[in-house]
Design a protein that fits this description.
The structure is a single chain. This protein has eleven helices and six strands. By secondary structure, the chain is an alpha+beta fold. The protein folds into two domains: 135 residues, Beta Polymerase, domain 2 (2-Layer Sandwich); 114 residues. A hairpin with a 5-residue loop joins strand 4 and strand 5. The protein is globular, with a radius of gyration of 21 Å.
Length: 259
């Protein structure tokens, strides 16, 4: 079925490459993962062409993704295929902005680079995507590493009046459990962005991060697992702020070591 989808899409004149990525091509796989298929094209892939190619499947939802433009199809065996569409121009810009110009994000900075790097090409009409993959194989840029650390540590616990730590403290004082959860999620996003950058490892995405940290990082903060688990468990309790402070303090201590 995977080949049927890839071959059908690659026959469209606008499509450059079709690649399998996401959890199924990651280092930590499980039986709960959908099949994430990325379609790279010079122009928009028409809805009617997509509906025609997928017409033989059990269930088809066109243009239903809340994130990137995408479709969802399910075959007769119950396998779910998430199909996402990316323009070649946008893809090249993402690679250029992060990997070449070294611009950091708040959380997840190199996820897109990781996605390209670990993709498995299942159909292609030229070597455009393969050449992008080759660019991601270069050494982790030191300037990018420093920019990720600086940007994310500053919002985590820097001198600003609205750091994530200060926002978490306000959420606790207000007994706002929803905001506490939201602030911790933001803290963890920046925390892992810093951690993977420090280790010169591409960020693998939002899932199974604790396991990936053990797999991809040569150095972890002290009490890494217990700090994480305590912080998550502490939402709504008096442990909440001490747990977050410990999480950030041990990350800061790691950064002071020789990378």
């Amino acid at each position: 079925m995977l080949k049927t989808i890839a071959n059908g899409l690659s026959e469209l004149p606008v499509v450059k490459s079709v690649a399998l990525s996401g959890s199924k091509t990651s280092a930590i796989n499980d039986n709960f993962s959908d099949l994430d298929i990325y379609v790279y094209s010079d122009n928009h892939v028409p809805f009617e062409d997509r509906a025609r190619i997928f017409s033989g499947f059990e269930s088809v939802r066109i243009n239903c993704s809340p994130f990137e433009e995408g479709d969802e199809i399910i075959d007769k065996c119950g396998n779910v295929y998430d199909i996402m569409y990316r323009s070649t121009e946008w893809t090249e810009w993402q690679l250029d902005d992060v990997w070449k110009r070294h611009n950091a994000r708040l959380g997840y900075t190199t996820c897109f680079i990781y996605n390209i790097s670990t993709s498995e090409i299942i159909a292609e009409n030229d070597d455009w995507f393969r050449s992008l993959q080759n660019e991601t194989m270069s050494d982790y840029p030191e300037e990018l590493c420093m920019n990720i650390i600086k940007k994310n540590m500053d919002i985590l616990s820097g001198d600003g009046s609205a750091t994530f730590l200060k926002q978490a403290e306000l959420a606790y004082k207000r007994s706002d459990i929803v905001s506490q959860n939201h602030r911790l999620s933001a803290i963890l996003a920046s925390y892992f962005d810093v951690l993977f950058a420090y280790n010169r490892a591409l960020h693998p995405g939002e899932k199974k991060l604790q396991g990936y940290a053990h797999l991809l990082c040569h150095a972890l903060p002290d009490s890494f697992d217990s700090n994480l688990e305590t912080a998550i468990r502490s939402i709504g309790t008096e442990e909440y702020i001490p747990a977050i402070r410990s999480l950030i303090r041990n990350l800061s201590a790691l950064l002071e070591r020789q990378a």
